[in-house]
Amino acid sequence: MAGPEAAISGRDSTIDLSSVKNIHLVAVCGTGMGSLAGMLKASGYRVTGSDQHVYPPMSTLLEASGIGIKNGFSANNLDADLDLVIIGNAVSRNNPEVQAVLEKGLPYLSFPEAVRRFFLERKEPIVIAGTHGKTTTSSLAAWVLQNGGKDPGFMIGGFVKNFEGNYRIGKGPYFVVEGDEYDSAFFDKGPKFLHYAPQYAILTSIEFDHGDIYKDLSAVKEAFKKFVNLVPSSGKLFISGEDRNIVEILNGISCPVESYGIGGKYDWTAEKIVVVPEGISFEARYRGDVFGEFLSPLMGNHNLKNSLAVIALSRQLGLSAGTIREGLSTFLGVKRRQEIVGESKGVSIMDDFAHHPTAIDETIEGIKMRFPDRRLWVIFEPRSATSRRNYFQKEFSRCFDKADRVIIARPYALEKIAEAERLDPEKLVKEISGGGPPAALCLSADEIVGKIAPDLRSGDIVCVMSSGGFDGIHGKILKALETRGS
Question: Which pLDDT score is estimated for 485?
Answer without folding.
Answer: 65
